[in-house]
Amino acid sequence: MDLPEPVAVDPTLEKNSKERGMKTTTAQSPAPKAGAETLTRSLEYRDLLAYGLAYIAPVAPLATLGFVWNASAGLVALAYLLGALCMYFTAKSYAVMTEEVPNAGSVYGFARHCLGGLAGFVAGWLILLDYLLIPALVFLLMSVGMGTLIPEIPRAAWLVILISSAVGINWFGVTVTSRVNVFSVKAQILMVLTLMALCIYALYQGKGSGGLTLAPFYSAEGFSATHVFAGTSICVLSFLGFDAISTLAEEVKGGDRKVVGRAIMHVLLIAGAFFVLLTWVLGNLMIGLDVQDPATAIFELTADRIGPWASTALAWLLALIVGFTNALPMQIGVARVLFAMGRDRQLPHAFARLHKKHGTPHIALLFASAFSLIVAIVLRNDIDLMASFVNFGALSAFLLLHLSVLVHFAWRKRSKNYLAHWCVPILGIAVVLAVFSGMAATALFMGAMWLVLGLGYWRFLSARHRVELAV
């Protein structure tokens, strides 16, 4: 392929690029103004921790309880335990790569740096399927809840209200969002701890299994590896979010490369322990319950085993606390990936524009929010299918993440750190493939179509000489 003649690079831009850990490029389009693509470094470790926990959401298992219960044949706690183990290898690879490539593009930047332009684009394209659809899924779930509580307002109107509220908060920058994240995490933890206390009380009143047994982890009669992996493939959705911390790598105070990796590992550890404990309690209480609709299983459970008042109270708390705060970090994550790919001209460069006052990638934020609204309306009756699409994008990108670690450290650098640079990515690839085996055929097919569409767009970029840009 004939490359266009190099253009001169502004010395100030070159200096700024080096400070961000990026190579200067012989861009085929006009170079941006110096400093125009630099995110503000305003975050500390506690902000990253709050962001990751808010993204994952301590209440996440409540929304998917019925689906995991059915898929795993009642072994919900085991499915979540395996999900946490699966995500450990991925989190470890993220932690390793964030020290090497502190890029706002997350796995897009990692794969582009280690595997080349095509692999980087594919990783970014696939992770966008995750990051673009997760907010839509959350908005849709919350609109269903609010529509049930206040049926006079149609679901579409609730979607507009919820999305507009999230944009309004994120518009003023990641520091403002971080304060809301801290409040949201504290409120959700308090809510879940209260729910678990009520469930344990109901158990020892003779409901469900009549106590805390190991039934949600293992059952000799109902155990099936196929069912467990099917449940685990759904559980992965609840853990998605620790990886999004890597999108904030360019906004950490002092540029400490290790703090992002620490936050990623700690968020996964906290969430994993919390989820397994929660589903252990709920799984025991679910025994003997005939679930009518897996989407509302938690409300059926609380109404039948605790009381109608508990179900109503939980619905209101989830709608008000989670509905108006849980999508905030999700919008931030996708906006940062769009920003990074726009900065590298892999997507429209408008996504790399930053708000003059607040320093946020506002064009990317508005696009992601509009996309979420459209998808939520179109797939409003296919929640489980949307969840499968999200998992396909995330797991596919995780494969490229592990390959990045292997190629960069094990092959190129001949690293002697056999645990982190050899064993972890190899085991990570094996576990991700195992989870893929339990995914619905429809999700695999539609995910493959998304990949084909991305490769077609890559050919378009190649024809316009926009794929040779350095990382």
Question: Which terms would index this structure?
Answer:
471 residues, mainly alpha, Amino acid/polyamine transporter I, 17 helices, globular, disordered N terminus
Structure report:
There is one protein chain. With 471 residues, the protein is mainly alpha-helical. The chain has one domain: Up-down Bundle (Amino acid/polyamine transporter I). The protein is built from 17 helices and no strands.
Spans with pLDDT under 50 lasting ≥5 residues?
A: 1-36
The first-level CATH class is given as Mainly Alpha
CATH fold title: Amino acid/polyamine transporter I
Task: Sketch the topology as an H/E string, one letter per element.
Answer: HHHHHHHHHHHHHHHHH
Main location: membrane
Subcellular location: Membrane
Protein name: APC family permease
Pfam families: AA_permease
Task: Compile the SSE list and pairings.
Blueprint: H1 11-19, H2 45-56, H3 60-71, H4 76-100, H5 107-115, H6 117-149, H7 155-170, H8 174-203, H9 225-239, H10 257-286, H11 297-305, H12 308-322, H13 328-343, H14 362-378, H15 383-412, H16 418-436, H17 441-463
Summarize this entry quickly.
Helices cover about 70% and strands about 0% of the residues. It has about 475 residues and is mainly α.
